[in-house]
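User: What would this chain look like folded?
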Amino acid sequence: MKPKSTNKKSRLPFVSINLAMTADGKIATANRAVTSFGSPRDLEHLYELRAKADAVMCGARTVELSQSILGTGGEKFRRRRLKDGLAEYNVRVIVSGSGSIDPGATIFKKKISPLIVLTTERASPKNLARLRQLADEVKVCGKTGINFPAALRWLREKWQVKRLLCEGGGELNDALFRADLVDEINLTICPKIFGGRTAPTIADGQGFGKLALAGKFQLHWAQNFNSELFTVFSRRKTSDFA
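Assistant: Here's the prediction, encoded as structure tokens.
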């Protein structure tokens, strides 16, 4: 009988981030008026990645602005999921430290699959009560900030999430990078320039203060398609630096 693995990462989902960014590194305009700017091929790529994921996670503001429901993308992708032995629909996860999500957001109007909200003790009793009426489950995991290792471990243990796709925004990505939880980055670089010093990037928030602490990845795959560059970056293992 083999001993159980003591590797903490083995008890967490495989975390993949997917985003499109402009050639100057922006994921939206400074006023957030434009949050979707990729080609139809990039949108198809997003649904292909969702089709492989047990759950799709997004920050509350990103969900509100994009009016996304974090769904599968239609019958073709549902059939693909079933063929691969996955549930017909992916679990949907919203992250909101304060619990202040617009109850009228589009995602709450589509009851297509389990909807989970990750929040903290900063969320008021009123917000928590409202969210519990809208979502299938509300998980408090942290005092002032989300404890992502604990939250992701809970998602795997209770909801059988082995592969988690994160679609931003920048502050959520930053938190995942700082917690060293990101295994893969799917990044589409689009031939556009947004500019603006306050325009969001792939990883906003606190960031890393030292180069030695920065998240380390290596280019795994790249392909040019009609002037868009599709790339995949994989986490660099400790042995890569030996």
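Residues 148-159 form the longest helix (12 residues). If you want, I can go into more detail on any region.
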